[in-house]
Amino acid sequence: MIEVEGLTKDYGPRRAINNLTFKANPGEILGFLGPNGAGKTTTMRILTGFIPPTMGIARVCGFDVIEQSLEVRKRVGYLPETVPLYPDMTVFDYLKYMADLRHIKNADDRVDDVLEIVHMEERANGYISNLSKGLRQRIGLAQALIHEPDVLILDEPTIGLDPAQIREVRTLIREVGKHRTVLLSTHILSEAQQICDRVLIINKGEIVVEDTPERLQASLTGAQRVAVRVQGDGDGLEKLISEISGIGRVSTLHEGSVEVESAPGKDIRPEIARNVIKAGFDLLELRSIDLSLEDIFIQLTREEPETPSTDDSDEVP
Amino acid sequence: MRNVWVIARREYKRFFISPVAYVVAFFFLILLGYWFYSALVEAITYSLYYQAPVPGVEIVIAPMVTLLVFVMPAITMRSISEEIRMGTMELLLTAPVKDWELIVGKWLGAFFFMLSLLAITLIFPIVLNFLVKPGIDKSILITGYLGLVLMVASLTAIGIFISSLFNSQVVVFFISLAIVLVLWFVIRPLAVDASSANSQILTYMNFINHFMSFFRGTIDLSDIVYYLSVTSLALFLGTVSIEIRRRR
Fold first, then answer.
1. What pTM was estimated for this model as a whole?
2. CATH of domain A222-301
3. Which residue, A103, A232, B44, B107, shows the most beta carbons closer than 10 Å to its own?
């Protein structure tokens, strides 16, 4: 269980995080979403006791991260973004070292157990320098789990992995997260959607929004969005659709594929279908798109766009 | 407290994996062996012509002092700086390990490695003992090696401290070396020139003066205190340095 109140961290003149307040409950997987430099790693480093905050309070399992740092560290499993490891050690020796540092009894057995959890039993005697990125990440995760912590803090746990490995790690996180508090950061938004119970979007050191992925999607989907695909290069398709009444933004994704946004409340699909076919296009696909977390993210974290000029005479740049 | 031993044990083992340690140890022993050999040859040559003095343990211990001054920075230069460069510092500082446990653990590992090295050098006095009648002066052997052990303890501590200050091993090496050389050579002439009070302080600070009593076969408590103080001070400063790094 993590409690953060008014957490602020300055690196000299630069304020990395500003007045963050949030909570993560036991058994919950909380996602930290944000662009690079948003303050995710800084927050995690404060929660794991690596660096002290400038202002504010952070508590893990009821212990203050400054006053009772050692108690906090005993209960937290941390996987840093860089996945630091000792290349000249074998997998087993490394995990045993980590286990010994945490005073685990029967460390040998525990190392075997945790290697089983991450499916790395066969590589136990190999050197860490021989492991691929994906396997290193699994060892890092093993290290974070070895002392059966109440809280797991994972900084970008799937970065650099191939799709198969990503899926494995996500399943792993969901499994181990069942009885723990998990805080993970990512900027892969579908990942947050898949694994997390709740999502915190953070930008420039401040929390932009906090909610479950479903509710976020629901609250921000005002307009209906539709994808249209026709045979061939779709020449003139964009223009055709934008002339239909009730249509908002139309953008061409690639040849023959167009994304349409309509005013809220109106199902534009039938009309699009009719118009497209009447114009002679071969309609291949017509489907509505849910506002993905990616869109929400971009919407919420982009700079305020300039109000487009209503003047019809567009200057040629 | 247990963490200190966990870290120390691992550091000790790591020295035996690292090629740097082997290379340094190799050159240390080779050079020592060479000096030992030439001192013996010299003594034998002289003894053919003169009633030359019998070579004592000093011919082993004296060059060791010089060599250790260079060996120590080479052995300790990567202790902390390597952890920082590899990013594993983030693991160590977020584990339930106190800062001082980390420093002392690293120091103990290096110290025990050096003790192993010193143990190997005992082969020279043993050989000398058989070559010389009536055998070497055992008391100088004991006090001399005690002095070496203390000196090694403080030199490794200084090395570990400097290693916690900088990320580059090369910088750590040269600065550690510079500090020891200052403590050894620079202070002496300064001590001569200065007024008597300052002169006494500087003379006390001189690294090598405190070794001389051990070299002569005596054990002086004030010298033991000096080396232990240097060791403790360096380890303390190392701990502080890690704490400061967190806050940067």
1. 0.80
2. 3.30.70.100
3. B107
The Cα–Cα gap between A80 and A236 comes to: 50
Chain A residue with minimal CA distance to B102? A101
* Confidence check: pLDDT of B117 > 90: yes
Which residues of chain A make contact with B95, given a CB cutoff of 8 A? 73, 98, 101-102
Q: Residues of B near A (CB-CB distance < 8 A)?
A: 2-3, 6-7, 10, 14, 17-18, 86-91, 93-98, 246-247
Q: Do B95 and A101 touch (CB under 8 A)?
A: yes
**Starting at the edge strand that comes first in sequence, how are the strands of the sheet with A55-60 ordered?**
A14-24, A2-11, A55-60, A63-64
For residue A127, report the phi and psi dihedrals to the nearest 5 degrees. -80, 145
pLDDT digits (tens, 9 = 90+) for A34-88: 888 888 999 999 999 999 999 999 999 999 999 999 999 999 999 999 999 999 8
Sheet-wide strand order for A224-230: A247-254, A257-262, A224-230, A283-289
CATH topology of domain A2-218: Rossmann fold (3.40.50)
pLDDT tens readout for residues A169-220: 888 888 888 889 999 998 777 777 788 889 898 888 888 888 887 776 665 5
**What are the residue ranges spanned by the domains of chain B?**
2-247
Placement of tokens 């300052």 in the chain: B198
Q: Any CB–CB contact under 8 A between A53 and chain B?
A: no
CA distance B246 to chain A (A): 5
| DSSP state letters, B197-230 | HHHHHHHHH-TTHHHHHHHTT---HHHHHHHHHH
Which residues of chain A have a CB within 8 Å of the CB of B91?
78, 80, 84, 98, 143
The one-letter code for the residue type at A165 is Q
Tell how strand A2-11 and strand A14-24 pair up: antiparallel
Residues of chain A positioned with their CB less than 8 A from the CB of B6: 97, 100-101
Ranges of each domain in chain A: 2-218, 222-301
Contact B97 A88 (CB under 8 A): no
